[in-house]
Every structure is written in C-alpha cells, then in structure tokens.
Amino acid sequence: MIVVLLGPPGAGKGTQGERVAAALGVPKIATGDVLRAAVKAGTKLGLEAKGFMDRGDLVPDAVILGIMKEALAQPEHDAGVILDGVVRTVPQAEGLARATAELGRTVDVVLMFDIADDELVARLSGRTTCDTCQKPFMGLEPGQPCPDGDGTLVRRKDDEPDAVRNRLRVYREQTAPVLDWYIAQGANVVRIDAVGSFDEVTARALKAVGR
Ligand code: AMP
After folding, report:
1. Residue 85: half-sphere exposure toward Cβ, Cα within 13 Å
2. Which of 36, 65, 144, 158 is the most exposed place for a label (fewest CB within 10 A)?
3. 84: which strand partners?
4. Any residues with Cβ below 6 Å from ligand 1, and which?
5. For residues 33 and 27, what is the distance between their CA atoms, to the nearest angstrom?
6. Integer Cα distance of 108 and 25 in angstroms
7. What is the structure's pLDDT at 118?
8. Is the dihedral of CA 182, 185, 187, 192 positive or negative?
9. Cβ partners under 8 Å of residue 122, min gap 6
C-alpha cells in the first residue's frame, strides 16, 4: 500500500506517519529526514539542500524526484510505504505518479491532515527536535537530552518564526494545489482532522487506511 501524507508543516504528519507505518508493517520515508541527514553528513545533496531548508523554501523538484525514485526502487518498499512530506508540488505529484506507474504500482490513499494556521505557528515555535533520532518534542528546551535516546534537543533553524511564516506561505502557494491535483485525478483522498490527542488522530488515520 502506498500512502501519501499531505498537510502543512506542524500538522503531525511525521508522528502520525510513524504510527500508521508501524500499524501497516511498512517503512516510512520522509524527504525532510533524508535531507537533514544529508546536511549533517555534509554530502553533495546536503550542501545543495541546506540553504533552501534553512529559509523554509522548497528544495528543487529534480532533487526530490531523485530521492523518491531511489526510495521506491528499494526492495524493502515493495510491500508498501508511507510517504511523509515527499510530495509538495504538483510536478512532484506528477513525477510520483510516473514513477509508481513504471513499477506497476499506484498511490492507494492520500491522507490530508487538516489544521488551522494559528495552531501550527504555536506548535512549530514550541517544538524541539532530537539532533540524532529527529523525533519532535513539545514543551522541552534546546540543549536538553533527548528523552528517547542519546541525542540532544535542538530548535530546527526552520522552526524559527521567520522561517515558519515562510514555510506556511510556501505551503499555501505550492503544496495546497497538490490536494486539488489528487482530487482532480480521482485519487482516494481522505481528510483527517489533525487537532486532538495523538491517539485520536492516529485512530482517524488508521480508519482512513482501512485499519
Ligand atoms: P520537513 O521535515 O518535512 O518539514 O522538511 C524540511 C524541509 O526539507 C522543507 O522545509 C524543505 O526545505 C525540504 N523538503 C522536504 N521535503 C521536500 C519536498 N518534497 N519538496 C521540497 N522540499 C522538501
């Protein structure tokens, strides 16, 4: 089962995606995680992506399409995969449709996480992220140890207020049209209310994927 997670930054796609992936027994790919790991490792991909990411801008489509195709070709994704933040522009959605068709596969469900802007700003500006496992935490300060591992919590550069505002603008201008594109294609789009406890939102997401 190929599941595309759509929704603004801070809607909870990452956390909920992990839970849906665990319930379905399939891996999750997040392009944001792939890119942050590349920045940390100082690879060519990381050097290319860093400036875009720090400003809260999108990394060019060609870069994302490369990551997407490479990931889909991995045998561990044969049984299915959860794509978290992987599709953020209409050309990326078109590219994914081509890549899946070449493999004789299709996107089975598009989960759209619905949430209001003011809730997002509050969530993102109160968030710290582990520099090692990349898990997000609310109500913990930068510099504290990660509660779940060996890392240290940091404030992501793109969770600073200016970058958050830019990410929301980029979302509205470039990513929101992806939802309309999937609807126009007749895809199985399910809207999920992303406000509620983790467990409530997970229950909605699992229902949407038939669990
Ligand atoms: P995320 O962790 O999903 O919030 O992604 C962090 C940043 O990585 C984004 O603000 C973009 O700069 C970049 N990024 C991640 N996924 C994509 C994508 N599909 N298209 C373009 N840029 C992306």
Report:
1. 22
2. 144
3. 5, 30
4. 9, 30-32, 35, 52-53, 56-59, 64, 85-86, 88, 92, 158, 167
5. 13
6. 16
7. 85
8. positive
9. none
Q: Are 108 and 186 in contact (CB under 8 A)?
A: no
In 3D space, the residue among 23, 26, 4, 29 whose CA is nearest the CA of residue 79 turns out to be 26
Query: From CA 81, how far away is CA 1, in angstroms rounded?
Result: 6
- How far apart (Å, rounded) are the C-alpha atoms in residues 40 and 75? 26
Determine the residue type at 131.
D
| Length of the chain, in residues | 211
- Successive 10-residue mean pLDDT values, the chain, 211 residues: 96 96 96 95 97 96 96 93 98 97 95 93 91 93 96 94 92 98 98 96 97 90
Alpha carbon distance 2, 108 (integer Å): 5
For ligand 1, what atom is nearest to the CA of residue 13? 3
Nearest CA to ligand 1 atom 15: 32
Non-local (6+) Cβ contacts of 119 within 8 A are: 10, 195
* Global confidence as pTM: 0.93
Burial (CB count within 10 angstroms: exposed 0-12, middle 13-18, buried 19+), residue 98:
exposed
Sheet of strand 153-154, all strands in order from the earlier edge strand to the far edge: 136-138, 127-130, 153-154
